[in-house]
Amino acid sequence: LRYRGTTNVLPFHPAILPFLKRARLDSIRLFNGIKVDRQLITALAERWRKETHCFNFREGEATITLMYVAILTHLPIDGKPVCVSDHLPDDRDGMPGWVHFIHSVLGVKVPVKGCVDATDRMPPMRKHQVSITWLTKYFRDHYECHPLTEESPEDEKERYTRVYLIGMIGGVFFSIKSSNLLSCGWLRMA
User: Fold this and answer.
1) Average confidence (pLDDT) over 149-172
2) Could you give the CA distance from residue 20 to residue 123 in angstroms, rounded to a whole number?
């Protein structure tokens, strides 16, 4: 069993709490230091049956419902469903539309393959996906030089909140061990 952990998450800062509350995601901060019981996860994985989408125990079958997830995470499950669209048209200069969208939302220009700043081995952006590791490192470096405070401008707090949520979404809730790329569609939600 491999666990990515929360290395790609900016540390929680109390100044972003009002933004998390407005989004009804203030309980997400509780997952930043979550401990994983690898033996338990491995045991549960051995009991999972793909055919029935249930855990097969001696006492019978059991499954995890959305209600259980909501109870354990304190995250809202009511309201409109979250649908992530990856389509954003390229603009006239041929740059991917997501590059401009990320710049407008986070204030950072992500280098794409073929740019001077991008490495050919692992560019920070591929198609409609952005590297969470690159994004988090960029903002960690930024906030080391310009620390977030209670007196920081609202747009700076909002930007920090977005990067924090992106790290939590891609690094904790929907992490994929094969890559550290996150669909840019999540930026629309964060």
Assistant:
1) 86
2) 30
